[in-house]
Amino acid sequence: MAAANPWDPASAPNGAGLVLGHFIASGMVNQEMLNMSKKTASCFVNFTRLQQITDIEAEIYQLRSVILCKA
Hints:
72% of the residues lie in helices and 0% in strands. By secondary structure, the protein is mainly α.
């Protein structure tokens, strides 16, 4: 039996959706807060780019030391 997709609005409500609905109804969470939470994803994009740059720099450093040893 396949599990319901939690992101599909047509699927049956799950626990997370019910809790979020309760928070929205009570005013604890609003659309602005939800929009701000989406923006934090860019942090992970920047972290991934920084990690790629660090890996490339390490590779360049390693290649330089190999070239200098052969010279």
